[in-house]
Amino acid sequence: MKTTLRTDLTVGDICTGFEYDSAEGKGLYGWGGKLTIQPEYQRHYLYAEQGGGRERAVVDSIMRGYPIGLLYFNQLGDKFEVLDGQQRITSLGRFTKDLFAVDDAQGNPQYFGSMPTAEREQFLTTPLTIYTCEGIESEIKAWYRTINIKGLELNQQEIDNAIYSGPFVTAAKKIFSNSTSPKLNLWKNFVKGNVKRQDFLREALEWIVKSKDDKAVETYMSQHRWDATADDLEDYFEAVIAWACATFPNVREEMCGLEWGRLYETYHTKTYDVAKLAAEADELFAEDDDIIKDKRGIYEYLLSDKTLTKLLHVRYFSEAVKRTTYDKQTQEARAEGKSNCPLCASGKGPNAKKIWERKDMDADHVTAWSKGGSTTAANCQVLCKFHNRLKGNI
Question: Are 30 and 16 in contact (CB under 8 A)?
Answer without folding.
Answer: yes
